[in-house]
Amino acid sequence: MISGKTALVAVGGNSLITDERKKTIDDQYEAAQQSMHHIADMIEQGWNVIISHGNGPQVGFILRRSELALHELHPVWMDYAVADTQGAIGYMFQRALRNEFVRRGMNKQAVTVVTQVLVDREDPAFKNPTKPIGSFMDEETARGHAARFGWVVVEDAGRGWRRVVPSPTPRDILEKAPIHDLIGAGYVVVACGGGGIPVFVKEDGNLRGVEAVIDKDYASALLAKSLDVDVFLIATAVEQVAINFNKPDQKWLAQMTVAEAEQYLAEGHFAKGSMRPKVEAMVQYLKQGGKMGLITTPANITRALNGETGTRIVP
């Protein structure tokens, strides 16, 4: 049994790259430290915490290295690249949290679970790649890579061009039981990294990995509901959600209901490659019986939990 209040905090993969000039491993770890500092505040206040994370830029780096090394080494498939990022980013989070716990005199420990997520091999997403991965490029570079490597590339929310890959709907978190047990035993758990490693069940009953990336917000919503958490929190680049974003009549939202969120989605207020999947994930979580959603920046997590900022999404 899990005692006390529990939160799932989804941290974006782009949050580890705070500046286009700072992409090294050391730069990413420094950014991870900042996010984990704020999550440690939650833990110090008595929250049980599961941490999920994105991995778009990191998977892109791995695949780019693989392409450059094809004259000497075998290629890295997408599911293995996701697994690689789960270990690497999990390590960053574990180390940063351990240092926070030691500094604060807290008897806590973080662990990372390599997490497989079940998808349907007939999911229509495989015929329509939409998930951005890797770094942003100008249009000329993007089209050049598309011609050379067979990529599908698109313009991403006015921020530049990126490669897109299939993004099937997550159906089940295969490691949800051990994640639950670890939380119940008092551990901080890093899980479902990068939306989870996409796998499907073959006709013989065996699992097989697939070339895709699952949206981390959708997978996090599924895990949050599976674990019946008290709060599903998405840590992102903005303190609150806004409608009419970047327009003269922009309005910040302190709270919205599921019905209001669905109306704003239908009206096109949220960009597809940015806020839209986050709000959709919150709606999915709450419509399946979730308790409360919250969107804010990592630095404002504590204030948002206290009702001072952030955007709350409620049934």
What does this molecule look like?
- The chain is 37% helix and 22% strand.
- With 315 residues, it is of the alpha/beta class.
- It has three domains: 16-42 and 51-119 and 171-214, Acetylglutamate kinase-like (Carbamate kinase), CATH 3.40.1160.10; 129-165, no CATH class; 230-315, Acetylglutamate kinase-like (Carbamate kinase, 3-Layer(aba) Sandwich).
- Strands 3-9-2-1-12-16-17-15 form an eight-stranded mixed sheet, with helices on both faces.
- Helix 1 packs across helix 3, helix 2 packs across helix 3 (78-104) and helix 7 runs antiparallel to helix 8 (276-287).
- The longest helix has 27 residues, at 78-104.
- It starts with 5 loop residues before the first strand and ends with a strand.
What keyword list fits this structure?
four-stranded mixed sheet; alpha/beta; 315 residues; eight-stranded mixed sheet; Carbamate kinase; 22% strand
Measured between the Cα atoms of the first and last residue, the distance is: 26 Å
Q: What class would the helix/strand composition place it in?
A: alpha/beta
* Strand line-up across the major sheet: 3-9-2-1-12-16-17-15
What's the mean pLDDT score? 93
CATH class of the largest domain, please? Alpha Beta
Strand content bin:
15-25%
Which spans of ≥5 residues are poorly predicted at pLDDT below 50?
A: none
Instruction: Name the CATH superfamily classification of the largest domain.
Output: Acetylglutamate kinase-like
CATH-defined topology of the largest domain: Carbamate kinase
Main sheet makeup: 8 strands, mixed
Fraction of helical residues: 25-40%
Number of domains: 3
Q: Can you name the CATH architecture of the largest domain? A: 3-Layer(aba) Sandwich
Q: Helix and strand string, N-terminal first?
A: EHEHHEEEHEEEHEEEHEEEEHHEHE
Q: How many E-type strands?
A: 17
Radius of gyration: 19 Å
